[in-house]
Predict the 3D structure of the following.
Amino acid sequence: MDRTQVVLPAGAVRRQEEFTQRLAALYHQRDRQPLAMVDTYGCQQNVADSQRLMGMLRDMGCGFTQDPNAADVIVINTCAIRENAEKKVFGVVGQLVHAKEKNPDLIICLCGCMAQQEVVADKIKNSYRHVDLVFGPQALWKFPELLYGVYTEKKRVFSIENEHGSIAEGLPVVRESGVKAWVSIMYGCNNFCSYCIVPYVRGRERSREPADVLAEVRGLVEEGYKEITLLGQNVNSYGKDLDSPMDFADLLREIDKIPGDYLIRFMTSHPKDAGQKLFETMAACPHVAHQLHLPVQSGSSRVLKAMNRGYTREQYLEKVRMARAAMPDVVLTSDIIIGFPGETEEEAMETVSLIEEVRYDALFTFIYSPRPGTPAAKLPDPVSRAEKQVWFDKLLDSQNRISGELHHAYVGRTVRVLVDGESGDPVWPLSSRTHGGRLVHLKGDTSLVGQYIDVKVTGSNTWALFGEVQR
Ligand code: SAH
Ligand code: SF4
Ligand code: F3S
């Protein structure tokens, strides 16, 4: 696909601003400011998308609420990664029928990865008739036009054409805190891991122009943001589709040149494309955190092949060695799937032995969930859920012990953290993160939020550290 067709012409995005203005005029006729509720499920990509939707809603003149009964517009931004995620959303959407009965003018929108699936859109069309607007992630930039259509045509709108996907620059945004920000550097996924729905709902891989990414990061640093996380399903594929050659490591180097007191994190990094150049660049760039989320999924080479991951256990372990050689203090985390169709107990235990060998700082662990339409969903899956749960618990036991040990080793040390918010806990009122991304509950004054400070680690558990401000 031609690059010029991937990046939307500025005129197309500006046209959406016209719809935003028309909606603002419509809302202005009401006797009070309309309220929007945005409810977000899934990964950081969805969080970033919701911040764009909130930007559009703000520009339409909306305020925000968390109360469905107070809202005039509700947007549910959904995730399709596992069946449970979908069930939860159907539960939430089902409940909204009551809010709609109380307020027939309420507009309910369903967007995100679930919405991009035809089966879901059909189910909403037929069984959830109180939902007014359904659109997939690839149509997000057109939200003002779609919403305007709902109001003016007085009918339900479905926009889920499965397109290649485009890039819209210059969309408005509402960021939650003044400390941390998300920056998408690419969209979509081309990897087609055999269990995964993402490539079907997010379209093909497409990278933002380096100049656009750099301008956004520079702007955030100038505004005082202290921690910027670059987002993509596989950031290591960044740049493959650009006209001028540039890879992810090159992009990191360019970003790192932006002056200021800030840290760059990124996710997710697919092991098959991570290598020496990336690790050396991370080590050489003072703004880049020594934190690597490198999802392994399985410790069995046979299962990895069936998952279409593109690396073996040995190749993965070699990359971990390379990363640690370049950055001895690197904080490593991973995603694991237990119970892939046909996985044996022995293979699941290979995953446990891999995590014992790597000693990750933390893991995100999942039991396999079949996603209709993916190749893995067609494979025989003879192992019972109960048996998978036993393997899963063994994995968790190992990881909890390892995380506990690694966290305990911090106690007594002084570490530099970014204070990123208030916790609401009177004993540990602040939350903060080490450069490697570990959570530190902190005693100290709330005026410290947004600052880098040295703290003494005084305690730890499986999930976090506890510390006090150094004087
Ligand atoms: N792009 C990222 C992953 C995004 S999805 C990567 O490749 O690393 C986040 C995690 O959800 C995946 O890493 C995987 O561990 C898990 N996951 C994806 N599909 C799943 C499924 N069908 N069942 C269970 N877990 C799944
Ligand atoms: Fe899914 Fe694999 Fe793409 Fe990650 S890389 S989003 S697991 S298909
Ligand atoms: Fe879920 Fe879509 Fe993210 S399926 S994990 S919200 S890319």
